[in-house]
Amino acid sequence: MSKTKRLTYANVTATLALVFSMTGGALAANHYIITSTKQISPKVVKSLTGKTGKAGAPGPTGKEGATGKEGPAGKEGSIGKEGPAGSAVAYAHILGLTDPSAPLDTANSKNVTVASEPFTGGYCITTTVPIKNVSAVPDFDHGGSVGTTVSANFDFVAEAIKDKTCPTGTSVLVETGTGGKDASADFWISFN
Q1: What are the backbone angles phi and psi of residue 106, rounded to the nearest 5°?
Q2: Alpha-carbon dihedral sign for residues 92, 93, 95, 99
Q3: How many CB atoms sit inside 10 A of residue 135's CB?
Q4: Is 107 exposed, middle or buried (0-12, 13-18, 19+ CB in 10 A)?
Q5: Vertex 98, ends 174 and 142: CA angle to 5°?
Q6: What does the pLDDT profile of the chain (192 residues) look like in tens digits?
Q7: N or C: which end of the chain has fewer CB within 10 A?
Q8: Ramachandran region, residue 80 (left: φ > 0; alpha: ψ -120 to 50; beta: rest)
């Protein structure tokens, strides 16, 4: 009996089953779904991570931005606001150490016309207004040191005028010193 090829239902079904099984496997091979690294061998995961490369060259500097708005004014500093006018009717800045030949600092004095130093550390000061009280302090900004003393009084004015130590009209006599000895000094004096 001769074997001839015939197209039978069984042969067609077997051939189609073989074709579909091959294409289905190929389709599945291209569409694996991996949802966790636990599904991949640790050696494979390690081989997928490469080494960090060299840093690249820096880029060019960008354009300067626009100037922002000026901020609000700050609060008053430690100096504070200027206080009300004082009660002094006269005041003076005496530069006995800085400028002994002309000790009256006229730019920083009011109603004081004469300030002279007839002897070391002794100042005769004349005011143009009546005065009752006097207060004097060393000027630490112009050479005054911790040991500088300044004392002002009215008690010896008459005697200083009589001895011609101070000119007629002197209002107050001021004595300055350093370390217990008479010495020229810069100081501030005020009268009320």
Answers
A1: -65, -25
A2: negative
A3: 13
A4: exposed
A5: 85
A6: 455 666 777 777 777 676 666 665 555 555 667 777 777 777 777 777 777 888 888 889 888 888 888 888 777 666 667 777 778 899 999 998 888 888 999 999 999 999 999 999 999 999 999 999 999 999 888 766 778 889 998 998 999 999 999 999 999 999 999 888 998 899 999 999
A7: N
A8: left
What one-letter code names the amino acid at 165? Answer: T
How crowded is residue 108: how many other Cβ atoms within 10 Å of its Cβ? 13
Cβ neighbour number for residue 148 with a 10 Å cutoff: 20
Residue type, 169: G
Instruction: Return the domain boundaries, the chain.
Output: 9-44, 90-191
pTM over 0.90: no
Closest CA to 187 of 152, 139, 140, 133: 139
- Give dist(CA 17, CA 160) in Å, integer: 139
Bridge partners for 123 per DSSP = 174
Beta bridge partners of 150: 176
- 190 forms bridges with which residues in the sheet? 91, 135
pLDDT at residue number 143: 63
Three-class secondary structure of residue 191 per DSSP: strand
Are the CB atoms for 123 and 166 separated by under 8 Å?
no
